[in-house]
Design a protein that fits this description.
Dirigent protein, apoplast, Dirigent, mainly beta, AOC barrel-like, about 110 residues, globular
């Protein structure tokens, strides 16, 4: 994946970075994904910093929780978790807008 990271779900929302990584199927019984994802910031105070997530994403659950396993730049030594919520999903194209709320501790 290589998607825009924005402040809000609207197409006109300010772009603050990229969400980059990969996912693969991790379950034979449901849509459960293994996500390895970096939120890489390209503007403002957090420019050139990133947050790294690695975990299981049960894609059709209302809220999914995944661990933050690290970061770089201002997020060096980051630990915490994210909660993902799907705001919009087009089943025909597979396109989705997902909101990530990040709870983070870092030095």
């Amino acid at each position: 994946m290589d998607n825009l990271l924005t402040l809000g779900p609207e197409l006109s929302s300010k772009v603050v970075g990229k969400s980059q990584g990969f996912y693969g199927m991790a379950s034979q019984e449901e849509v459960g994904l293994l996500m390895a994802m970096n939120f890489f910031f390209t503007t403002g105070k957090y420019n050139e910093s990133s947050i790294t997530i690695l975990g299981r994403n049960a894609a059709f659950d209302h809220v999914r929780e995944m661990p933050v396993i690290g970061g770089s730049g201002l997020f060096r030594w980051a630990r915490g978790y994210v909660q993902a919520r799907t705001d919009d999903l087009d089943l025909n194209s597979g396109d989705a807008t997902v909101e990530y709320t990040i709870y983070l501790m870092h030095y």
